[in-house]
Design goal:
By secondary structure, this protein is of the alpha/beta class. It has three domains: 7-77, GMP Synthetase, Chain A, domain 3 (2-Layer Sandwich); 91-206, Beta-Lactamase (2-Layer Sandwich); 216-483, Rossmann fold (3-Layer(aba) Sandwich), CATH 3.40.50.300. The chain has helices at residues 17-20, 25-31, 54-64, 79-87, 90-94, 100-113, 146-159, 223-233, 250-262, 297-304, 320-331, 346-354, 359-365, 390-396, 434-441, 447-454, 462-471, 477-483; strands at 7-8, 34-38, 44-47, 69-74, 118-124, 127-134, 137-144, 171-179, 182-193, 196-206, 238-243, 269-273, 283-287, 311-314, 335-340, 366-378, 384-387, 405-408, 420-431. The chain has a seven-stranded mixed β-sheet, sandwiched between helices. Strands 7-6-5-10-9-8 form a six-stranded antiparallel β-sheet, covered by helices on one side. It is globular, with a radius of gyration of 26 Å. The two termini are 35 Å apart.
Length: 491
């Protein structure tokens, strides 16, 4: 979107609401002008059908007063009217956007257009903020007064078949709806707060969208990581544990592994999840009902083992009983995949013993411990390559006399002014070999294990893999510092 190329692909734009609000809806629709982004100098980029039309420029400059305006044209002129209707819907013109059904359709359309994973309705003293989680970050899209927010929440609860009279207890439900000809599946969760009910809508699927990250080769592992992971999956028995915080992509990795294992259709695969995120062909999926204590992870796992599974996926190890049962099932010839909340792959080993699992059982069954994080990708439309600063070179172990080129996030209409578009995973893997098993069984405690883990190559750590991806242009140093190593850029 430089001056040399004054056209824009309207199918890819993600203008934030704050930019759209710079131009009133009625004026934008009548002029055929769509605000896209604001530059560092405050210049507003606007898409119009004909950027050489002096009347349009004059009208925009009068509406925007002292703000400078830069005009661009759409690559496809026919796409402009549709884009204007999407970002400035009829309900915004006729004043009915505060109606719950109109607001729901508008926010869902906004979320899908901006590739958001969640919609949050967050109440506070002045009403509610409606926020979108885009690439893992929450962004306020609009505010609603208390009355409109309450109606909006009630409308969502009706769609999700929840009890609208119950406002003092959490509730969970699902919405299956159709928007612009596409079916959309949402998971809904409500929780009471001091200012009202907080509602989270997780976008689970949308018909017609391209499948993402369904295969192991789509996960972005480097060749050595991919070989290590596949080698562990080929084992006839044992346990593979993935760690990471909530929202780090663990379930996506497990689903890709299950699809790879199910492909030959010669094994019985069972998953135990809370909740079941999405169906996986060839896998018997069981939903845990821990809140009613009818089906816990441990109870489900003991029952599943009587159904002769070859591979069992346990959504999460939450207690010592589940951990011990999972590892003991590996001794009887099962391959078990599961997750655990720790900060690193080596911490998985100590966390299992903290949960009461005997060290001999960990040593005998654990095949692979891995950790992962999701980091944002720099937007290819506005990313700039610049030499690393001397301070960055010292922090990252690079030669300051020959600084490498690293990507910098800038911000444009294609990325919603964030500088980032999409995410990728960073991995840390620890294959449990004879040396690790001997260290686990060493009666001298954890000193030998700690020394062994510190001797691993730096590129096998989360930090090392993150820096490799920075040099490949797949993320930025700011993201690595924010997600993996908070002290990286504290110089």
């Amino acid at each position: 979107m430089s001056d040399a190329l004054p056209t824009v692909d309207l199918n890819r734009i993600r203008p934030p609401q704050a930019v759209l609000d710079l131009l009133p809806a009625r004026s934008a629709r009548s002029l055929g002008a769509l605000p896209l982004s604001v530059g560092d100098d405050g210049t507003l980029t606007v898409c119009v059908a004909d950027r050489t039309d002096p009347a349009v420029r004059d009208r925009l400059e009068r509406l925007l007063r002292e703000r400078a305006v830069r005009l661009v044209e759409p690559e496809d002129p026919a796409a402009l009217p549709a884009a204007l209707r999407t970002h400035y819907p009829d309900a915004a013109l006729n004043g009915t956007l505060d109606r719950p059904e109109e607001l729901f359709a508008y926010m869902l359309r906004r979320a899908l257009a901006r590739n958001a994973s969640d919609i949050h309705v967050s109440p506070d003293a002045g009403g509610s903020r409606i926020r979108l989680r885009i690439d893992g970050r929450l962004e306020t899209d609009r505010r609603e007064p208390p009355e409109a927010a309450a109606e909006f929440v009630s409308y969502i609860k009706v769609l999700a078949k929840l009890d609208i009279a119950e406002k003092r207890a959490p509730q969970d439900g699902n919405i299956d709806t159709v928007l612009d000809g596409s079916s959309v599946a949402l998971r809904v969760a409500t929780v009471p707060t001091i200012h009202g009910e907080h509602v989270t809508l997780r976008i689970l699927s949308r018909s017609g969208s391209a499948p993402q990250l369904e295969r192991l080769e789509d996960l972005g592992m480097n060749p050595e990581q991919d070989r290590t992971f596949r080698r562990a999956l080929r084992a006839p028995n044992g346990v593979i544990i993935i760690s990471g915080p909530t929202g780090s992509g663990k379930t996506t990795t497990l689903y890709a592994a299950l699809r790879a294992l199910a492909a030959p259709d010669t094994r019985h695969l069972v998953s135990i999840e809370d909740p079941v995120e999405k169906p996986v062909d060839g896998v018997t999926q069981i939903r845990v009902d821990s809140r009613q204590e009818r089906v816990s992870f441990a109870k489900a796992l003991r029952s599943v083992l009587r159904h002769d599974p070859d591979v069992v996926m346990v959504g999460e190890v939450r207690d010592g009983e589940t951990a011990t049962t999972a590892l003991r099932s590996a001794l009887t010839g099962h391959l078990v995949l599961t997750t655990l909340h720790t900060n690193s792959a080596p911490a998985i080993l100590t966390r299992l013993t903290d949960l009461g699992v005997p060290p001999y059982l960990v040593a005998a069954t654990l095949r692979l411990a891995m950790a992962q994080r999701l980091v944002r990708r720099p937007c290819p439309a506005c990313m700039a390559w610049e030499p690393a600063t001397p301070e960055e070179c010292r922090a990252c172990g690079w030669d300051p006399k020959a600084p490498p080129q690293v990507p910098r996030a800038k911000g444009c209409a294609y990325c919603g002014m964030t500088g980032y578009a999409g995410r990728t995973a960073v991995y840390e893997m620890l294959a449990v070999d004879d040396a690790v098993r001997a260290a686990l069984m060493d009666t001298r405690g954890s000193d030998r294990l700690d020394a062994l883990l510190r001797s691993r190559p730096a590129e096998w750590t989360l930090r090392g893999d993150g820096l490799r991806r920075v040099l490949a242009g797949e993320t930025t140093l700011a993201e690595i510092a924010d997600v993996i190593d908070s002290g990286l850029l504290m110089l």
